[in-house]
Amino acid sequence: MTKTQVLSLAKEQKVEFINVMFTDILGAMKAITIPVSKLDDAIELNVWFDGSSVEGFARISESDMYLKLDLDTFAVIPWSRGSRAVTALIIADVYMPDGAPFEGDPRGILKKQLARAEKMGYKFNTGPELEFFLFKKDDKGNLAPLPHDTAGYFDQTTDLASEIRKEMTFALHELGIDVEALHHEVAMGQHEIDFKYDGALRCADIVIIMKYALKSIAMKYDLHCTFMPKPIAGINGSGMHVHQSLFSLDGKKNLMHDPDGEYQLSELAKQFIAGQLVHIRAMNAILNPTVNSYKRLVVGYEAPVYVAWGQRNRSALIRIPRITKGREKAVRAELRCPDPTANPYLAFAAMLAAGLDGIEKKMVPPAPVEENIFEFTDETAAARGITTVAKSLLEALDYLQKDDVLRVALGDFIVEKLVEAKTAEWDSYRLSVSQWELDRYLESY
Fold first, then answer.
1. Between residues 245 and 324, which one has the greater pLDDT?
2. Of 210, 208, 200, which Cα lies nearest the Cα of 126?
3. Burial class (CB within 10 angstroms; exposed 0-12, middle 13-18, buried 19+) of 445
4. How far apart are CA 297 and CA 389, in angstroms?
5. Residues tagged active-site
6. Which of 33, 75, 395, 437 has its CA 20 to 30 A from that of 297?
7. Are the C-beta atoms of 370 and 285 separated by less than 8 Å?
């Protein structure tokens, strides 16, 4: 949209405030709120801020930065309508005072990788599927892992959140997000709302907006919406499966489709898949960036553990969904290990970089595996030459630091800041004493 269109729309919708939004390296949403009277200046002169207190951004001596508004992301926040403070949001890119893009801006990192793909003739589309839990608060009003209902996969009669999901969907529609399906997930209190695939940058923006929207709607019902990967032991965790495809720059041809190829995949698609399989352990540090992420990536709960690909079951790390005649544009590869704690900008950048490395080096993927991989043991997998994803955040960080392809794609600044923050997180976890340890050892020893 143009400046004139945005200003006109803000006036028409009686907007009073603008949330200028961006994310830190860890994916946490940040915002600077300005009165709508300052929007014209913000578009022309940008919004300056102090980056020294933002996770992974800058030292105090280098703190001056500015936000450049992406006007195409303008949207009125639905739940603010009807109040005195009608508010809109605009997502921004982060720049240094000299006009250079900030090397620690996750959105800027993704834009660089998309530009690289475009030079190679590819448009990268994604379709992330976010799972989440709705929890009640305990008797004292504190956050607790207390499922809001007792329903299971696609259940209706015991699904207390059916109307809440519909309200969430109405809000997402008003924010310009094309929702395709909404349903209860496998675990009690677990849900999923899916939206239509799009270019990777737009989808990353949507993930950030969607998390904000779903948490806000849940609060209206005195519930807590969490995207924590494994909030309750012994039941399924929440993932963010990501469907991926490469199209021609005009968007007309799916370059991953070959009617005569295995699973109707082109050689280009197989090379892309091979690249991701090769780099997956380093990618885990980006796609599964918390200590808790690796409590989801275990055998027995529908989360992929073994590095393999295939079509006929959902246990593969990369699954090729079946395609019916006339839907050739839907040929895609679904990466199933990411979880919704990932920063979507960095996640999509890492996935694209790994896939493009496979294309550039003409990598050949291993033979597809069609057995139920969930029934494999490490010994069974090893006998087939199948490795596992990283087993801990610490292991994933080690792989990331050694992966030259991802270091170049993300930049040394991002990698070093991420490793620093996540190593501190690991150390804090390592040094803590859990309830499990007290239950196991306190009396026995």
1. 245
2. 200
3. exposed
4. 8
5. 50, 129, 131, 185, 192, 241, 314, 334, 336
6. 437
7. no
Q: Extract the tokens encoding 323.
A: 């395609």
Distance of CA 40 to the CA centre of its chain: 32
pTM value is 0.95
The confidence band for 391, taking pLDDT boundaries of 50, 70 and 90, is: very high
Query: Are the beta carbons of 116 and 360 closer than 8 angstroms?
Result: no
Q: For residue 150, what pLDDT is reported? A: 79
Distance CA 280, CA 350 (A): 10
> Is the torsion defined by CA of 403, 349, 295, 128 positive or negative?
negative
Percent of the chain at pLDDT exceeding 90 = 78
d(C-alpha 332, C-alpha 268), whole Å: 12
In this prediction, residue 61 has a pLDDT band, given cuts at 50, 70 and 90, of very low
Task: Please tell me which residue, 379 or 308, carries the higher pLDDT value.
Answer: 308
383 burial class (0-12, 13-18, 19+ CB within 10 angstroms)?
A: exposed
What pLDDT digit, counting tens, does each position of 96-136 carry?
Answer: 999 999 999 999 999 999 999 999 999 999 999 999 999 99
Give the span between the Cα atoms of 238 and 93, in whole angstroms.
29
Task: Find, among 289, 301, 299, 176, the residue nearest to 238 by Cα.
Answer: 301
- Determine contact, residues 308/319, Cβ cutoff 8 Å: no
Q: Contact, 175 vs 75, CB < 8 A?
A: yes
Is pLDDT at 54 greater than 50 in this prediction?
yes
The rounded mean pLDDT for the chain is 92
